[in-house]
C-alpha cells in the first residue's frame, strides 16, 4: 500500500499505526505548497483532487482519504495489531475518540493556530472557544494509559495532534498534567518514537527547501 504524507502532519498518525502493526508500505512525501509527490515528481492532486494528506492507496488500488477512515481501515486490515476495537460499544467508543481528536482538537483548536495566514483574532477565538477541550481530555486521562483500555488508532491520532504543541506556544502542556504525562509516555512507544524521529528529519529538509526557494 502507498501512504501519501507530509512531515509531522496528521498523516503521521497512519505511519504510527502501520509501524505498530508491523505493516509494509510505501511512504510517498507530498510537498505541501506545490502538491508535488517528491518521490516521482507527479501531481498529488491526480491521486486526491483535494490535495490533502493522508491519502492511502490499498494493495487493491482503492484510494482512501480522511484520517479517521484511513486509521480504521488500518486497524481492520491488521486485526492482530489490536489497534481497533470489537463491534459494539467498544467500536463506538473508538469512533467517538477519533471524531473528538479530528474535530475538537485537530480542526477546532490546532488548525487555526497553525495557519500562518489566520488573523490573530481568529487564533484568539479558537483558544477561547476550544481550550476547554483540553480540560475535558485532561480529566478523562486521569489514571488512564490510553483512550481505550489499550493502544489504538485513536491514540496514534491523538499523540500526533498533541505533538503540534511544539509549534503552538500559546498551548503549554504543563497546564494539563495528565495530557502531558500521556504525551511523554506515548513518545517513548517504539512506533511513535520512530515516526516522530523520521518525520522530524523530513520536516527539517522541507523547511530548508522552502528557505532556498524563497
Structural features, described:
Residues 1-82 form the GST N-terminal domain. This protein has 214 residues and is an alpha+beta fold. The protein has seven helices and five strands, in the order βαββββαααααα. It has helices spanning 12-21, 67-77, 89-114, 120-140, 153-162, 177-187, 190-213; strands spanning 2-5, 26-31, 36-37, 55-57, 63-65. A five-stranded mixed sheet has the order 3-2-1-4-5, covered by helices on one side. Helix 1 packs antiparallel against helix 7 (190-213) and helix 3 (89-114) packs antiparallel against helix 4 (120-140). The chain starts with a strand and ends with a helix.
Q: Flag low-confidence runs.
A: none
How are the strands ordered across the major sheet?
A: 3-2-1-4-5
Provide a count of the helices.
7
Helix-strand pattern, N to C?
Answer: EHEEEEHHHHHH
Gap between N and C termini? 34 Å
* SS-derived structural category: alpha+beta
Tell me which oligomeric state these chains represent.
single chain
- Biggest sheet descriptor: 5 strands, mixed
Provide mean pLDDT, rounded.
97
Please estimate the helix content. 40-55%
Gyration radius, in Å: 17 Å
Beta content: 5-15%
Number of strands: 5
Shape, per Cα inertia axes: globular
List key phrases describing it.
214 residues, alpha+beta, 5-stranded mixed sheet, 5 strands, Glutathione_S-Trfase, Glutathione-S-Trfase_C-like, Glutathione-S-Trfase_C_sf
Question: What's the arrangement of secondary structure elements?
Answer:
Elements: E1 2-5, H1 12-21, E2 26-31, E3 36-37, E4 55-57, E5 63-65, H2 67-77, H3 89-114, H4 120-140, H5 153-162, H6 177-187, H7 190-213
Parallel strand pairs: 1-2
Antiparallel strand pairs: 1-4, 2-3, 4-5
Domain GST N-terminal: 1-82
Pfam family, one: GST_N_2
Domain GST C-terminal: 87-214
Amino acid at each position: 500500500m502507498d501512504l501519501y504524507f507530509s512531515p509531522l502532519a496528521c498523516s503521521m498518525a497512519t505511519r504510527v499505526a502501520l509501524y505498530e502493526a508491523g505493516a509494509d508500505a510505501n511512504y510517498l512525501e507530498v510537498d505541501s505548497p506545490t502538491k508535488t509527490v517528491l518521490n516521482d515528481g507527479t501531481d498529488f492532486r491526480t491521486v486526491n483532487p483535494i490535495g490533502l494528506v493522508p491519502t492511502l492507496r490499498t494493495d487493491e488500488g482503492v484510494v482512501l482519504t480522511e484520517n479517521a477512515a484511513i486509521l480504521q481501515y488500518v486497524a481492520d486490515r491488521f486485526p492482530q495489531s489490536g489497534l481497533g476495537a470489537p463491534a459494539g460499544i467498544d467500536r463506538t467508543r473508538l469512533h467517538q475518540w477519533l471524531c473528538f481528536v479530528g474535530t475538537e482538537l485537530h480542526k477546532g483548536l490546532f488548525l487555526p493556530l497553525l495557519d500562518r495566514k489566520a488573523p490573530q483574532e481568529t487564533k484568539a477565538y479558537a483558544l477561547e472557544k476550544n481550550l476547554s477541550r483540553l480540560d475535558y481530555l485532561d480529566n478523562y486521562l486521569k489514571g488512564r494509559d490510553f483512550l481505550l483500555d489499550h493502544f489504538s488508532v485513536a491514540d496514534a491520532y491523538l499523540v500526533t495532534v498533541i505533538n503540534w504543541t511544539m509549534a503552538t506556544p500559546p498551548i503549554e502542556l504543563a497546564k494539563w498534567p495528565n495530557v502531558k504525562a500521556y504525551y511523554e509516555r506515548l513518545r517513548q512507544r517504539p512506533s511513535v518514537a520512530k515516526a516522530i524521529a523520521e518525520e522530524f528529519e523530513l520536516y527539517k529538509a522541507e523547511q530548508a527547501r522552502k528557505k532556498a526557494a524563497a
